[in-house]
Design goal:
The complex is a heterodimer of chains A (287) and B (356). With 287 residues, chain A is an all-alpha fold. Chain A has 13 helices and no strands. Chain A starts with a helix and ends in a 5-residue tail after the last helix. Classes of the chains: A mainly alpha (287), B alpha+beta (356).
Chain lengths: 287, 356
Amino acid sequence: MSAATESYYDRRGLLQTLGRDGLIQIILILNTIVMLGPLVIMFFAAFKTNAQIFQSPFSIPDFSNVANIVKIWTETNFLRYLINSAIVTGSSIVLILTLGTMAAYGIARYNFRGSGFVLMFFVAGLTLPLKLAIIPLFILMRDLGILNTQLSLVIIYVAMGLPTTVFIMTGFIRTLPNELEDAARMDGASEPRIMWSVMLPLVRPAMVIAGIQNVVPIWNDFFFPLIFIQKDALKTLPQGLTTFMGEYTTDWGVLFAGLLLSSAPVIIVYIVLSRQFINGMTAGAVK
Amino acid sequence: MARMTLSGIKKSFKSVDVLHGIDLEISDREFVVFVGPSGCGKSTLLRLIAGLDTISSGEFHIDDRRMNEVAPSRRGIAMVFQSYALYPHMDVYENMAFGARLMGLEKDEVEKRIDEASRMLRLDPLLKRKPRELSGGQRQRVAIGRALVRKPKVLLLDEPLSNLDAALRSDVRLEIARLHREIGGTTIYVTHDQVEAMTLADRIVVMNNGKVEQFGSPRELYERPANTFVATFIGSPRMSLLNVERDGSNLALAGSGSVNVSRLPQSGERELVIGVRPDAMAVSTDENAKGFKGSVVYTEYLGENTYVYVRLGDGTLVGIRSSASVDLPPDTPVVIAVASEEIHYFSRATRERLAA
């Protein structure tokens, strides 16, 4: 009897057994499953035939069956789309980071009349959904004669990416000690030189954050290519993949293989840069 | 040669005036220390000399060459920053080579200079390390090394010891004094610590509220302070200031009686401030002794001596150095004798020194 009561009082709730951290761990694990689930299904489906996908969508496939991947590589324009996406995303990111870092450095470090206004002007861009302006943009691109060129996409992506980039970079550059630049000035470095050899290596973590922040939406963007690009040879991956839906309405395996291959570059970039990404986010938190 | 002349240097940030007309003449090879409480403008003045901020008005010359508009790197000046400001992504060697390369020196000349500096500062084993892998003292030495590699005519140091722990401080202080002798350039050193100033300087510039209060050798500043600010700023524990009235050859202090002095200021002012250092006073418990009456507030036992703090009749608290054997409980009535030849006289109106 007494033993029973004791064991009753000894019994502890879930929270006590695991503690607060344990509970957070469980939530994070569940979150990971929810996040990774679709990716895993996509990965599995890329190795299955249509019939297998519908019969057993969650089963582990035979990974030696690469027919879908071979098919997408050889019988479709996939490679062309991949290269187009890489060109558009790559040049957009290069421009965003170059212009964004330079603008942020100027705003953060030089006292000039209206620097606050320039920053607010950039930040105001955060509140403006460019998709709302799609018709004027279309007219503008038509008048500029750059419809159906990759340039039209790059221009829009740069405009879309600059506000966040300038915002992130300005905040980060302001946390860097002024004395470093003064030291470089005493050493005889010119202003561009200070930015290039002293500041740039220090802002790299923030640039990685800004880069990833921009790479994912640009790489995945479907809307703007749909409006501005009609030539098949210029289509980007998300847009190009939709053509499979027409041609291979029934062949989900090929579509998933295409999705797998199109998401692979971004995932690889993310994994490679994740250390820098985390460093950047925790910069300043721990000295 | 690096003789520096500052005349009428003013600096204002927007509408705030930080420096109100600084005139200084610094000779070649001199070790000059700018000292003053925080916010007195000493670091601002250093930045103006370095060229990192622009001079609002006034003239700055090095060896008769006007420097107001000359770029920092072309003034022949190197600076060691308070936070050291080492480039975090470069190793020690690169940190020192950066400036030397920008001077357009040949590769082997750069190497030679780094070699020389690292030997002088014992940095050889550290050349391949990044700044974050160094201790505070080592970073300090690298920062000095980086400055020396440029072979400056003038070396500026902005509170170089403030980030070091107390034990390292005196070591580095000696090191800086040695370097100054070996290199033989002009050195300007900013600090708020008067002990650093006294031990290092050939001459000290005492600054307060954007003005130079006094410019002189440590001995001059200690023995003949120009005004009450310098008098209390230099010397530790501080000099006590007492408001007294002259009455013949007596000095009367409200509520504490009067003392007879052998030496009085030449000017005939009645209302005076006298400054007395802790070792120019003596405490006595004998009620009939001559001196100012007061009562003990507390005593500080420091091993070698004891400091007795006494509240005088007008409420002033004075510190007196006594022998270690003195142990007086609070509220003991005491009499303080003052050595009259060690009294500093100041005018009550202007707070300036009066010649005795």
